[in-house]
Amino acid sequence: MNKQMQCNLTAAIIYLGALSGASAQPVTTAPPGLELQLYAGLSITGALGTIYSVEYLTDLAQTNTWRCLTFLQPPATNYLWFDPTTPAAGKRFYRAIQFDAPTNLVFIPPGTFRMGSPTNELDRSDQEGPQTAVTISRGFWMGKYEVTQGEYLAVMGSNPSIFKDDTNRPVETVTWFNATNYCGRLTKKEQAAGRIPAGSQFRLPTEAEWEYACRAGTSTRFSYGDDLDYTSLSDYAWYQGNGGGTTHPVGQKLPNPWGLYDMHGNVWEWCQDWMLGTINNQIGSLPGGIVLDPQGLARGDGRVVRGGSINPGFPAGTLRSAARINPPPEFSFYETGFRVVLAPSQP
Questions:
Q1: Residues 294 and 186 in one domain
Q2: Is the preceding peptide bond at 130 cis, omega within 30 degrees of 0?
Q3: Which residue has the higher pLDDT, 239 or 14?
Q4: What is the end-to-end Cα distance of the chain in Å, rounded?
Q5: Residues facing 71 on adjacent strands
Q6: Is there a single domain that holds both residue 151 and residue 259?
Q7: What share of the chain has pLDDT > 90, as a percent?
Q8: pLDDT at 283
């Protein structure tokens, strides 16, 4: 399989195909009355299921400046990909390299979903609406598990957790700042080791990415169904009903349909987004309508946490896919941790 394919874009010409042998046809004019919109294209040939790091640079003489633009899982063995971020002028050269992610990451494909909960959902709060049609335009990698105490210790050199008898428990008692600092240090460590491409980074998920990954194509209260009387929740989550007020080693319950563990329960998980208001304050509600790759508010009085926890003070309904609260970013408690996303930096 040819893992590197390139395409040369100038201000007026697009070459669709690969320099390694596929035919390239220049496009320079449009039929009368039609506007020609220019995009760069890259022809990718490979086995179904293969995931690529699609990368670009602007000067072929600078071969150490490749930057990851997207992670892509082509839907066909021969696939023509277009770059929607192509600048109006200048050059970009592209390549697609098969990417095998670091251990314990799951690829989350792009797609659409309805964020939030319908007004008739059991145990719903006002801040879970109005339901919003969200498109996640680029695939990303997400941690299969919540970040463990062992992983945090290896990167940060300390373990702030309360329950320390097993380093496979999720790290907890971490602030939002602790979580983002971990992501930054992990990025530097993995880039230095050559395990992730330049231009990619570990970070917290956006709230939309988190719910999209949690739902995994479902629209029910939980990723495994509505479970109106919570009879199946113990199969998927540690919570007030079975957790004993303590965290538990990650990955002991059943995963969601995309292979992610503990998306419901164990510890609340920090997200990137700001949020306004409290649980019953409409100010903290979702935007509604149709949204592309939402990043949340520019400011707020707290950062979003998702997923619920083993805290006996939080009922089972707070583990639903749409449930959300917003502690201040400096908040830390034994029930709060996080998981990571690996995604391209903004181009």
A1: yes
A2: yes
A3: 239
A4: 27
A5: 53, 139
A6: yes
A7: 78
A8: 58
Q: Write out the H or E segment, with its range, that includes residue 16.
A: strand 14-16
Q: Order across the sheet with 140-143: list the strands.
A: 105-108, 140-143, 341-344, 200-203
Coil, strand or helix at 8: strand
Q: Which residue has the tokens 């449009």?
A: 30
Distance (Å, rounded) from C-alpha 73 to C-alpha 47?
10
Taking residues 243-272, report their average pLDDT. Answer: 98
The structure tokens 């983002």 sit at 180
- Of 55, 72, 98, which closes a domain? 98
Amino acid 88: pLDDT: 78
Residue 168 has a CB neighbour count (10 Å cut-off) of: 14
Categorize the per-residue pLDDT at 86 as very low, low, confident or very high, splitting at 50, 70 and 90. Answer: confident
Distances 278 to 53, 79, 122, 304, 326 between C-alpha atoms, Å: 40, 46, 19, 11, 7
Q: Both 172 and 238 in a single domain?
A: yes
Pick from 251, 249, 237, 250: nearest CA to 311? 237
Mean per-residue pLDDT, 156-175: 98
C-alpha span between 116 and 132 (Å, rounded):
7
Distance, CA of 77 to CA of 16 (rounded, Å): 16
Range of the structural domain that residue 79 is part of: 8-98
Same domain, 193 and 240: yes
pLDDT on residue 39: 54
Per-residue pLDDT tens digits for 6-20: 333 322 223 333 332
Backbone angles phi, psi at 180, to 5 degrees: -70, -35
Cβ neighbors of 197 (< 8 A, separation 6 or more) are 53, 55, 66, 67, 68, 97, 99
pTM over 0.70: yes
The total domain count for the chain is: 2
User: DSSP assignment, residue 147?
Assistant: P
**Displacement of CA 213 from its chain's centroid (Å):** 7
- The residue among 202, 162, 211 whose CA lies nearest residue 183 is 202
Under DSSP, the state recorded for 330 is T
